[in-house]
Amino acid sequence: MKVLVVVDMQNDFIDGALGTPEARRIVPAVAEKIKNWTGEVYATQDTHQTDYLTTQEGRNLPVEHCIEGTSGWEIAPAIREAMTGFTCLTKPTFGSRSLAETLAIFNQNEAIEEIVLIGLCTDICVISNAMMLKAFLPEVPVSVDAACCAGVTPQSHQNALEAMKMCQIKIYNE
């Protein structure tokens, strides 16, 4: 069984508070990858509360985003439409411990052949989740489809891909 992990394809990261042209460009490719995927699909949803600016992340990135219940927090419409029968896990941090734990349990019951990550942002949440999955499931191949990812900047996207390669995470479609 292969698993697709769709990381934080939320309005605020696409065309909202932290949106970028690169994020907007990958939406059709991400939706297409989800539609054509034969296997399990999990999604993460960056989730903050109204006290975001008082958190460590908020002090380091003082831009309110993905506040639970707002339109910016929601999964982008084109992505939501592509995803049927998926599991969505909210997460208050860059990496999702619940995703790693869930997939580790899944792997005990049915062997995971490969975990493929796509989404936003390559240089923050994609890399964090890829590294966590590598730690929780060291014998399961973890990969990233670079054509379905975007970073905060094109350079930081590329830097993240290079860092993941060094950690034995396979990069497709670079």
Can you walk me through this structure?
This protein has seven helices and six strands. The two termini are 24 Å apart. Strand 4, helix 6 and strand 5 form a beta-alpha-beta unit. The protein has a six-stranded parallel sheet. With 174 residues, it is an alpha/beta fold.
Write the layout of secondary structure elements.
Elements: E1 2-7, H1 11-14, H2 21-36, E2 40-46, H3 56-60, H4 77-82, E3 87-91, H5 97-109, E4 114-120, H6 122-136, E5 142-150, H7 154-166, E6 170-172
Parallel strand pairs: 1-2, 1-4, 2-3, 4-5, 5-6
Helix pairs in contact: 5-6, 6-7
Give a quick set of tags describing it.
174 residues, alpha/beta, globular
Element order: H for helix, E for strand: EHHEHHEHEHEHE
Strand percentage lies at 15-25%
| Overall mean pLDDT | 97
Flag low-confidence runs: none
Number of strands: 6
The neighbouring-strand order within the major sheet is 3-2-1-4-5-6
Q: Calculate Rg over CA atoms.
A: 15 Å
> Would you tell me the structural class of the helices and strands?
alpha/beta
The description of the largest β-sheet is:
6 strands, parallel
Distance between the termini: 24 Å
Shape: globular
In percent, how helical is the residue content?
Answer: 40-55%
Give me the number of helical elements: 7
